[in-house]
Amino acid sequence: MKVTIYDVAKEANVSIATVSKVINNKGRISDKTRKKVKTVMKQLNYHPNIFASALMGKQTKTVGLLIPDIANPFFSELARSIENRGHEKGYNLVISNTNYDSVKEDQYLSLLKQKSVDGFILASGFENLDKVQGLMKEDIPVVIVARDFPMFSVNAVALDDFMGGYLAADHLIKLGHQNIGVIARDLWSNRERLRGFKHALKEKGLEINSNFEYIKGLDHVQAGKKLTQKYLTSEECPSAIFACNDLLAAGVIQMAKELGFKVPEDLSIIGFDNTAIATIIEPPLTTIAQPIESMGKEVMDLMISVIKGEKTDKSRITLLPSLVKRKSTEAIKIKGKK
Amino acid sequence: MKVTIYDVAKEANVSIATVSKVINNKGRISDKTRKKVKTVMKQLNYHPNIFASALMGKQTKTVGLLIPDIANPFFSELARSIENRGHEKGYNLVISNTNYDSVKEDQYLSLLKQKSVDGFILASGFENLDKVQGLMKEDIPVVIVARDFPMFSVNAVALDDFMGGYLAADHLIKLGHQNIGVIARDLWSNRERLRGFKHALKEKGLEINSNFEYIKGLDHVQAGKKLTQKYLTSEECPSAIFACNDLLAAGVIQMAKELGFKVPEDLSIIGFDNTAIATIIEPPLTTIAQPIESMGKEVMDLMISVIKGEKTDKSRITLLPSLVKRKSTEAIKIKGKK
DNA sequence: TGAAAAAGATAAAGCGCTTAACTATAAAAG
DNA sequence: CTTTTATAGTTAAGCGCTTTATCTTTTTCA
Questions:
Q1: Is the pTM of this model over 0.90?
Q2: Which of A64, A165, B51, B248 places its Cα 20 to 30 Å from the Cα of A230?
Q3: CATH class (in words) of the domain with range A62-160+291-320
Q4: Would you call A258 an interface residue with chain B, using a CB distance cutoff of 8 Å?
């Protein structure tokens, strides 16, 4: 039924060891035998059983990807990009949706460890450093993406979130906005974005009073709406809102409209990520773009080089965000004037 | 280093066969020994090596999911739902993005076969029946989702696409539309939708002249825009457009606006899928809803029961679509009147 | 021409597990 | 008290592959 290394060996009149050698390009083999064996392999449509070799400690060409929410466009685009690069390089992806849930993170980690994935790409919340350190202690390749652990030696490819926040604030300030609301889930990357944001404000002598605001248990769009409602009906109604991802921004726009605010005339909105939805919503969203495509490529490449042992030192690749101006932001109107 | 069945056996003073038996709940084991072994397993934090058992023909608790485009919200939501259900039941998902490319489909199929996934969930285009039949001949569990092969015995969970198309047409007709454009990629499910659509028209004595229209090589949104431009600037400018997925519909709305058409006043638009973007775009999209959540659950459950051999006969589960009315469709204005 | 070195191929052990066949023990039956 | 039978546990083969030590053949060159 299933063709094994024995079948090939018999057919080619050699030992299984010889076959193994040509499979792995190891040891001394004459060209003649190599050719013969290869021919037979083709002819029999032989494919080595990965499990048998995994048993012997070889790689499985599979990497685990832990992601908080595959249905969030940023993550699904990132996943697609990682997957593509993986496919190019001969790696498969076991994708696990953690739903920002640390219990699930744990479960997946031990499950996939058991399934001998060659390494882990963590795009999850992972506020918990311990788990990552645990993996590293066991010498399991780990790469973090879209999330940085400062002060901690780990392979990572991340966005300069600080700069992203700075860019957003800078844009808004230049348009004359001074009273700006922020909506962000309390994650590390968002903390950085907020830091950059505040830094820009400070440079111009501005202050921001609003801090982390987020409503758990809702999806991003709903959370964006709720918070926007709160902001826009409060006393110091902001003239602009910085939403820390595009989904949130979509919610902001929706609620603004529902409350009778015109975007961008009455309220400027800037998002983050530059996913497909930024161009789908109305008005098209001004947003801070993450280079999702190269991010995926870089992280997969890094993962592979770690797996192959080419990298012994840790490295951190930082990609830079950029401002994409569309229609959801504009210069503030002078109050009272028309 | 790694703790094996031998370590457990030694520690518990039994043979490895006994340990194996308690792991798999097989054979005769006294309660006392069972408890003892279990304790030791916990204590040593032992986890069986899946590969070793896979080598012996046991399951890997991994299923392959082939999907055309994980970044399309319909598929990412579907993937999430499948993944969730899988996780509940102890299965992992290897997700492969085929990009509607039959070469990639082939590659993934043989690759994952080699990696001994327990079965395949095919959400891909798979116009090619042969491959599916090939898998089935090898007795590899296969379930098709969101895509039906009529006249062919295969496990599937699908939407009643015919009804979906019918519902869309019915809604539009009741609103008085007679001249309706259709945008759809030429896939099986869309052919069914179109058939249902036309059926409804025929019932009312209406005809549709436009047929399959799609532009390959573009993403859905762009394709939707291009085609809309063509329709709206043509002679028999339609009063309504049926787009066979929400992404396409988003493109339609965008282009309509760009051309100065008001939605829904000048042009009614109905989508398909009811993904998150339906509520994000402006105006909110009237669309035919697929029960994505239950679809994912059903397909995973079906897959598992096939894997476990509980199902010997093929079965086809058909879910029903429903119309979700939002703001992108309205009754047609009588021409000339105001 | 012959001994040493190099090259090519092999046998066999072992990775961690399952399982069929078997042995030992205890309980039931004659 | 021996024989049968059910029960509890063990032995050992083997899944398909890698790899080390070993053996055989060919090449090299003094």
A1: yes
A2: A165
A3: alpha beta
A4: no
